[in-house]
Amino acid sequence: MKMKQFLTLFIVLFCACNFNCFAQNHQYYVRAISHDFEPKLEHNGTSLIYKGRDEVLKDLFDTNTIYVFEKAFTNSSKSNLQRTFYVETDSSNSLDEFIVEAASFFDYGEYLGNFTAELAYHYPNDYGLTSPVTNLGLPVYLHYLDYINAAMAWDDDYTTGSSDIKIGISDGGPLFVNNLEFIGKNEILPNATNSTNPSVIGHGNGVAGIAAARGDNGHDITGVCYDCNIMMNGYGNFNRILELANAGADIINCSWGVHRTTPSPTEQECIDEIAASGTVIVAASFNLRSNSNGEVYNYDYLYYPASYNNVISVAAVAHINDLICDNIEIVGGIPIIRSPKDYVGAKVTFFNNAYDCTQPLEDQVEIYRKSTTILNNKVDILAPSGGMFSYGSYLVTGVISYQGDTGLATSNATPQVSGTVGLMKSLNNCLSFNEVESILKISSKYIGDIPANQHSYYNNKFGSGGLNTGKAVALTDALMNEYGSVAYLEDQKFSRWDFVFNGVSENIVMRNQEFKDTSTVTVTAKNVITLEEGTLLEPGSSFTNPPMDGFALFEIDPSLVISCPPTTLRQNRNPDKDTEVGLAEQLFVIYPTIVESEISITKEERTGDRIEEVKVYNMLGIEVYGFENLNHYHLTFDLSQLSTGIYIVKGLSTDNKVLFTNKIIKK
Fold first, then answer.
1. What pLDDT is recorded for position 115?
2. Does domain 24-116 have CATH number 3.30.70?
């Protein structure tokens, strides 16, 4: 953790000067005449430039240095406030130009004063062309970092990653280990498979760069978890994933997939072993494929490992352009908008190829289906793609290029999630797979209310919504800090999945949050749980026929601590530490902790005490199951007859010594 500090935004007044100075920025409110007014703007690294067609607005932005122009009251129900924009500029006279020169757009202005601009978040010096500070990296657009709110995660109260956290890359190579983005922060496994194919080399390096390229070093780009380390063993298969886990990877990125007509129980067993060890696997749902006639043939395919249990499956979301008339292009006589923010396709088209700018555009568009990635009910979350800078290609060719914007891709979306998990584990490496997945989903951006996303092709197939790295890291931090922190579970709607939140914060607050149908949620707090306005808890509703198999459980546990139990994985990482070896000798792994039917208990090191008895207690301390005369290191029990709820599983040795005590949740 770094001490809190604020970066001061500066501008260079004269090109010939060799010094920087602090700018006194002037603030305004201006009110647009129309509710639909939203000009097309881009950031050129210093200020905003107008990219639309109106000459008056073009002149206004050309003659004034405008740093911020955004809607000021997006949550207001009042017409005047809905049309009000907040403006920051270096000019004390530009308000007159808004009201006089652009009178056809604005009917009111208000001067707020001047101030020295300060940035609340930390922006590294290689953030790209949308950076509000000087960019010393490549002159490229990294819009995806804006979309996932990365700078919030890098705030000095949170983290930029940790060298103790290793992100495993199973996506090609060799890694350019002497590149400034990777040097001194990589581990290449001894039997790594390398390629001479430029596309494979670029793929692996590009994925590694998005996840964990060194940041704030004035070079190229910044990775999401830019102070995390990289572990690489070449192009992936399931054994190579297991190899990365056993070598100590905390997260494993799989921007690849294998199509299976039916899942492999053997591969699922491999994934379960990795998840039980504490490693989080993040994998691509995969991209659409076309046959020789240009027809997509794999809309409904399941690719693996993404579609296995205990893997975070990542599909892609568009992330650059707002749905406004200034962003409409006419291509071959057909109006389209490319990379429409929060849509699950790379472009949208208009019904009957006609549009009306006096009406909301979201009611007039549909997603061009071939521009999506594979979407299915195994997808957990979306991350940005479409029009992204091709860093891997740049490292191979030296040429700046961008991913085509005719379709989205999962290879560059997946490492954004891997990097986010790296940041979360940098704060708290005790997080279980269930907790990581729960935090990612509840902090993501809800996009289910967008009409085009509700089409039957996509509805309930794009996971929880858009990745929000900043909120995920903030929630992780709040849950683990006991004093002065409040953890908010908010702004999502879930009708499925299993959620587990454990927090020692002063308060865990749920608001504007829905859990329904087959969703399950278990919140364990050390102090207080508060349910505020907008909370809807209807999982397992008896109004359905048959009743849905969902539940909501809330528990106050004053003894709750956030600490790391010993695991085989951590023992492998520190083989020379006698204390950890001793712990590993008594390690029993219980899996899964959210139980549908069977539960397995395994002692990884087949030495020492065997399991003689297993007892299962309900939360009242009443024994509901008991198994005796076992004398084994590995056992499997059928708990399908248990009713829904929280239970304690206790194991005893032959001399009645307690070997383990674990909490499980029965669905």
1. 65
2. yes
